[in-house]
Design brief:
Layout (H helix, E strand, L loop, with lengths): L23 E5 L3 H7 L4 H21 L4 E8 L7 H24 L2 E6 L7 H13 L6 E9 L1 H12 L9 H6 L11 E4 L18 E4 L9 H19 L2
Parallel strand pairs: 1-2, 1-5, 2-4, 3-4, 5-6
Helix pairs in contact: 1-2, 2-3, 2-7, 3-4
The protein binds farnesyl diphosphate.
């Protein structure tokens, strides 16, 4: 762990054995629908290709010694999509977990869920809980999947959980500890694919000091090289920050 005194809470400087890589990377995986439309395919084909991009990105994150990878897989706004697409996304999530569980375990991946994923129904919830349990002993990389997640709802829930406490006891640390992301390292880098330049209610508190990177690549085309390029951009910004 870094013992350097830093002017912002990011823990990325001087960590990872002295490297300047991010400890915690989050991604808004956007552009599956457009990727499918460009090929005349149904949207579900874009989500399927997006699941493959998840596999590649996870591998790249582990190789680059990223400690936490947080993925926005289903926002609380996604319920507004057609029923068929919601059902496809849920099915894909269950399928991906089942198919990848052994590989995730072998690669030392721990799984954590944020958001109100219990809304997904008992069958998927049971599979999700089982996967979390099965991977709970791992420590190489924590994969955080945001499911039925919305940052404003997370902040409101945190405020409610702290409401009974004396005002003096509520500081930034107490607030951070009441969020779904409690205990995770500070978010260093937030990437959004597909050229959209919005946070869309994702990790609003956690992104306070993160580097934000918006790339034109549609999510299904995102791969190991794209991840490495994002880390390169992050490191270049860190060097500029450190040189001030
Ligand atoms: C955004 O593209 C993507 C999503 C809403 C879903 C992301 C889900 C996956 C990549 C599937 C599997 C996830 C895991 C963790 C295994 P969009 O549909 O909004 O694309 P568009 O903006 O081009 O329409």
């Amino acid at each position: 762990m870094s013992s350097a005194v830093e002017t912002r809470p990011s823990t990325s400087l001087g960590t990872n054995g002295g490297g300047d890589g991010p400890r915690h990377v989050a991604i808004i995986m956007d552009g599956n629908g457009r990727w499918a439309a460009q090929r005349g395919l149904p949207r579900v084909a874009g989500h399927r290709a997006g699941a493959e991009a998840v596999r590649k990105t996870l591998r790249a994150a582990a190789e680059h010694q990223v400690e936490v990878l947080t993925l926005y897989a289903f926002s609380s706004e996604n319920w507004r999509r057609p029923e068929e697409e919601v059902s496809d996304l849920k099915g894909l999530l269950g399928y991906y977990l089942e198919r990848e569980l052994d590989a995730l375990d072998k690669e030392g991946v721990r799984l954590r869920l944020i958001g109100d994923y219990r809304a997904f129904g008992p069958e998927l919830v049971a599979r999700l809980d089982k996967a979390v349990e099965r991977l709970s002993g791992n420590s190489r990389l924590t994969l955080v999947v945001a499911l039925n997640y919305g940052a404003r709802a997370e902040l409101v829930a945190a405020a409610k959980s702290l409401a009974g406490q004396p005002a003096e006891a509520i500081d930034e640390a107490a607030f951070a500890a009441a969020l779904d992301t409690a205990g995770l390292p500070e978010l260093d880098l937030l990437i959004r694919t597909s050229g959209e330049v919005r946070l869309s209610n994702f990790l609003l508190w956690q992104a306070a000091y993160a580097e934000l990177l918006f790339v034109p690549t549609l999510w299904p085309d995102f791969d190991e090289a794209c991840f490495a390029a994002a880390l390169g951009e992050f490191s270049a910004r860190q060097r500029r920050f450190g040189g001030r």
